[in-house]
Design brief:
alpha/beta, Rossmann fold, 8 helices
Length: about 230
Protein backbone atom coordinates (compact mmCIF):
# COMPACT_ATOMS: atom_id res chain seq x y z
CA UNK A 1 0.00 0.00 0.00
CA UNK A 2 1.38 3.40 -0.99
CA UNK A 3 1.66 5.76 1.98
CA UNK A 4 4.04 8.40 0.61
CA UNK A 5 5.60 9.69 -2.60
CA UNK A 6 9.08 10.76 -3.64
CA UNK A 7 9.29 12.94 -6.75
CA UNK A 8 12.10 13.78 -9.09
CA UNK A 9 12.05 17.39 -10.33
CA UNK A 10 13.71 18.08 -13.69
CA UNK A 11 12.02 16.18 -16.50
CA UNK A 12 9.24 15.00 -14.21
CA UNK A 13 7.47 18.05 -12.81
CA UNK A 14 8.60 20.66 -15.35
CA UNK A 15 8.45 18.82 -18.71
CA UNK A 16 5.98 15.94 -18.13
CA UNK A 17 8.54 13.24 -18.83
CA UNK A 18 10.42 14.80 -21.72
CA UNK A 19 14.20 14.74 -21.25
CA UNK A 20 15.56 18.26 -20.95
CA UNK A 21 18.01 17.73 -23.78
CA UNK A 22 15.14 16.82 -26.11
CA UNK A 23 12.99 19.66 -24.81
CA UNK A 24 15.62 22.22 -25.78
CA UNK A 25 16.32 20.51 -29.12
CA UNK A 26 12.66 20.77 -30.11
CA UNK A 27 12.82 24.50 -29.45
CA UNK A 28 15.88 24.80 -31.69
CA UNK A 29 13.88 22.99 -34.37
CA UNK A 30 10.80 25.19 -33.96
CA UNK A 31 12.91 28.32 -34.31
CA UNK A 32 14.64 26.78 -37.35
CA UNK A 33 18.20 27.21 -36.11
CA UNK A 34 20.59 25.93 -38.81
CA UNK A 35 22.17 23.09 -36.84
CA UNK A 36 21.86 19.31 -36.94
CA UNK A 37 20.71 17.17 -34.03
CA UNK A 38 24.20 15.68 -33.76
CA UNK A 39 25.73 19.16 -33.47
CA UNK A 40 23.14 20.13 -30.88
CA UNK A 41 23.70 16.99 -28.81
CA UNK A 42 27.41 17.78 -28.55
CA UNK A 43 26.58 21.33 -27.46
CA UNK A 44 24.11 20.05 -24.85
CA UNK A 45 26.62 17.59 -23.40
CA UNK A 46 29.31 20.28 -23.33
CA UNK A 47 27.03 22.66 -21.43
CA UNK A 48 25.91 20.06 -18.89
CA UNK A 49 29.46 18.86 -18.25
CA UNK A 50 30.62 22.45 -17.80
CA UNK A 51 27.84 23.15 -15.30
CA UNK A 52 28.74 19.95 -13.46
CA UNK A 53 32.42 20.90 -13.13
CA UNK A 54 32.13 24.64 -12.59
CA UNK A 55 30.04 26.47 -9.94
CA UNK A 56 28.34 28.69 -12.51
CA UNK A 57 24.85 28.18 -11.09
CA UNK A 58 24.64 30.03 -7.77
CA UNK A 59 22.23 29.19 -4.90
CA UNK A 60 20.19 32.34 -5.61
CA UNK A 61 19.70 31.68 -9.33
CA UNK A 62 16.13 31.39 -10.56
CA UNK A 63 15.16 28.80 -13.13
CA UNK A 64 15.16 31.51 -15.78
CA UNK A 65 18.73 32.47 -14.90
CA UNK A 66 19.73 28.80 -14.85
CA UNK A 67 18.19 28.29 -18.28
CA UNK A 68 19.98 31.36 -19.61
CA UNK A 69 23.31 29.92 -18.48
CA UNK A 70 22.57 26.56 -20.12
CA UNK A 71 21.67 28.11 -23.47
CA UNK A 72 24.61 30.52 -23.28
CA UNK A 73 27.03 27.61 -22.85
CA UNK A 74 25.43 25.72 -25.74
CA UNK A 75 25.78 28.78 -27.97
CA UNK A 76 29.40 29.23 -26.90
CA UNK A 77 30.15 25.67 -28.01
CA UNK A 78 28.35 26.17 -31.33
CA UNK A 79 30.24 29.43 -31.89
CA UNK A 80 33.60 27.77 -31.27
CA UNK A 81 32.71 25.08 -33.77
CA UNK A 82 31.87 27.77 -36.32
CA UNK A 83 28.28 26.54 -36.54
CA UNK A 84 26.60 29.82 -35.60
CA UNK A 85 27.78 33.40 -35.93
CA UNK A 86 29.60 34.83 -32.93
CA UNK A 87 28.13 38.30 -33.11
CA UNK A 88 25.20 40.22 -34.45
CA UNK A 89 21.49 40.65 -34.06
CA UNK A 90 20.67 37.08 -35.11
CA UNK A 91 22.59 35.63 -32.17
CA UNK A 92 20.89 37.86 -29.60
CA UNK A 93 17.48 37.29 -31.15
CA UNK A 94 17.83 33.50 -31.27
CA UNK A 95 19.18 33.32 -27.74
CA UNK A 96 16.32 35.42 -26.37
CA UNK A 97 13.69 33.53 -28.34
CA UNK A 98 14.93 30.15 -27.15
CA UNK A 99 14.98 31.19 -23.49
CA UNK A 100 11.56 32.85 -23.65
CA UNK A 101 9.84 29.94 -25.39
CA UNK A 102 11.31 27.26 -23.15
CA UNK A 103 10.55 29.28 -20.03
CA UNK A 104 6.93 29.85 -21.04
CA UNK A 105 6.42 26.17 -21.89
CA UNK A 106 8.05 25.06 -18.65
CA UNK A 107 6.01 27.46 -16.53
CA UNK A 108 2.79 26.15 -18.08
CA UNK A 109 3.70 22.49 -17.55
CA UNK A 110 4.85 23.17 -14.00
CA UNK A 111 1.54 24.81 -13.12
CA UNK A 112 -0.32 21.78 -14.45
CA UNK A 113 1.92 19.57 -12.32
CA UNK A 114 1.27 21.77 -9.30
CA UNK A 115 -2.47 21.06 -9.46
CA UNK A 116 -1.82 17.32 -9.35
CA UNK A 117 0.78 17.60 -6.60
CA UNK A 118 -1.62 19.58 -4.41
CA UNK A 119 -4.27 16.89 -4.84
CA UNK A 120 -1.76 14.20 -3.88
CA UNK A 121 -0.51 16.20 -0.91
CA UNK A 122 -4.00 16.10 0.58
CA UNK A 123 -3.64 12.33 0.88
CA UNK A 124 0.08 11.59 1.12
CA UNK A 125 3.32 13.15 2.35
CA UNK A 126 5.55 14.21 -0.56
CA UNK A 127 9.35 14.45 -0.68
CA UNK A 128 11.48 15.85 -3.51
CA UNK A 129 14.74 14.13 -4.49
CA UNK A 130 16.62 15.92 -7.26
CA UNK A 131 19.96 16.13 -8.99
CA UNK A 132 20.20 19.92 -8.98
CA UNK A 133 22.68 22.76 -8.69
CA UNK A 134 22.00 24.04 -5.17
CA UNK A 135 19.18 26.42 -6.14
CA UNK A 136 16.17 24.11 -6.18
CA UNK A 137 14.49 25.99 -3.31
CA UNK A 138 14.63 29.23 -5.30
CA UNK A 139 13.20 27.45 -8.35
CA UNK A 140 10.34 26.01 -6.29
CA UNK A 141 9.50 29.49 -4.99
CA UNK A 142 9.67 30.90 -8.52
CA UNK A 143 6.95 28.48 -9.66
CA UNK A 144 4.96 28.65 -6.41
CA UNK A 145 5.79 25.06 -5.52
CA UNK A 146 7.33 25.86 -2.15
CA UNK A 147 5.50 24.25 0.76
CA UNK A 148 4.28 21.26 -1.25
CA UNK A 149 7.14 18.95 -0.24
CA UNK A 150 7.78 18.09 3.39
CA UNK A 151 11.48 17.60 2.62
CA UNK A 152 13.79 18.60 -0.25
CA UNK A 153 16.84 16.45 -0.90
CA UNK A 154 19.15 18.04 -3.45
CA UNK A 155 22.30 16.42 -4.81
CA UNK A 156 24.42 19.57 -4.57
CA UNK A 157 23.56 19.84 -0.86
CA UNK A 158 23.79 16.21 0.27
CA UNK A 159 26.76 15.47 -2.04
CA UNK A 160 25.13 12.34 -3.42
CA UNK A 161 23.94 12.13 -7.02
CA UNK A 162 21.55 9.83 -8.77
CA UNK A 163 21.78 7.04 -9.77
CA UNK A 164 23.31 6.34 -6.34
CA UNK A 165 20.43 4.70 -4.42
CA UNK A 166 21.59 6.40 -1.21
CA UNK A 167 19.96 9.66 -2.27
CA UNK A 168 16.62 7.87 -2.45
CA UNK A 169 17.30 6.22 0.89
CA UNK A 170 17.45 9.74 2.35
CA UNK A 171 13.99 10.34 0.91
CA UNK A 172 12.64 7.20 2.55
CA UNK A 173 14.14 8.26 5.87
CA UNK A 174 12.50 11.68 5.52
CA UNK A 175 9.10 10.04 4.99
CA UNK A 176 9.70 7.64 7.90
CA UNK A 177 7.96 4.87 5.99
CA UNK A 178 8.96 1.36 4.89
CA UNK A 179 10.46 1.41 1.39
CA UNK A 180 7.76 -0.88 0.03
CA UNK A 181 5.14 1.72 1.00
CA UNK A 182 6.87 4.53 -0.89
CA UNK A 183 6.32 5.28 -4.59
CA UNK A 184 9.09 7.04 -6.50
CA UNK A 185 8.01 9.07 -9.54
CA UNK A 186 10.65 9.99 -12.11
CA UNK A 187 11.35 10.39 -15.81
CA UNK A 188 14.75 8.67 -15.97
CA UNK A 189 14.83 4.89 -16.07
CA UNK A 190 18.51 4.71 -15.10
CA UNK A 191 18.59 7.52 -12.53
CA UNK A 192 15.15 7.20 -10.93
CA UNK A 193 13.45 3.88 -11.59
CA UNK A 194 16.38 1.46 -11.25
CA UNK A 195 17.90 2.88 -8.02
CA UNK A 196 14.48 3.26 -6.38
CA UNK A 197 13.60 -0.32 -7.30
CA UNK A 198 16.96 -1.49 -5.93
CA UNK A 199 16.10 -0.29 -2.41
CA UNK A 200 12.58 -1.70 -2.46
CA UNK A 201 10.39 1.24 -3.46
CA UNK A 202 7.45 1.07 -5.82
CA UNK A 203 8.30 2.92 -9.02
CA UNK A 204 6.26 5.09 -11.35
CA UNK A 205 7.95 5.99 -14.62
CA UNK A 206 6.61 9.15 -16.26
CA UNK A 207 7.63 8.26 -19.76
CA UNK A 208 8.09 10.92 -22.40
CA UNK A 209 10.72 11.51 -25.05
CA UNK A 210 14.05 10.07 -23.96
CA UNK A 211 17.60 11.23 -24.66
CA UNK A 212 18.54 7.64 -25.47
CA UNK A 213 16.84 5.10 -27.70
CA UNK A 214 17.82 2.00 -25.74
CA UNK A 215 15.47 2.26 -22.77
CA UNK A 216 13.21 -0.74 -22.08
CA UNK A 217 9.47 -0.75 -22.65
CA UNK A 218 8.84 -1.14 -18.93
CA UNK A 219 11.81 -2.82 -17.29
CA UNK A 220 11.49 -2.89 -13.50
CA UNK A 221 8.99 -0.02 -13.36
CA UNK A 222 5.83 -0.96 -11.48
CA UNK A 223 3.77 1.54 -13.43
CA UNK A 224 4.16 3.75 -16.49
CA UNK A 225 2.34 7.06 -16.88
CA UNK A 226 2.49 9.91 -19.38
CA UNK A 227 1.05 12.59 -17.10
CA UNK A 228 0.97 13.26 -13.36
CA UNK A 229 -2.82 13.43 -13.70
CA UNK A 230 -2.79 9.63 -13.82
CA UNK A 231 -1.63 9.53 -10.19
CA UNK A 232 -4.97 11.03 -9.15
CA UNK A 233 -7.21 8.76 -11.22
Amino acid sequence: MIEGYIFDYGGTIDTAGCHWGIKIWHTYQQLKLPITEQQYRKAYVYAEQTLGKTPIIQPNFTFRRTLEEKIKLQFQYLQRQGIIAETGFAFAKNYTNIVEKIYADTAETTQQSKKELLKLRNKYPLVLVSNFYGNISVVLQEFNLDGIFSKIIESAVVKIRKPNPRIYQLGIEALQLPAQNVAVVGDSYEKDIVPAHTIGCKTVWIKGESWQNNEPEQGVADRIITSLKELNT
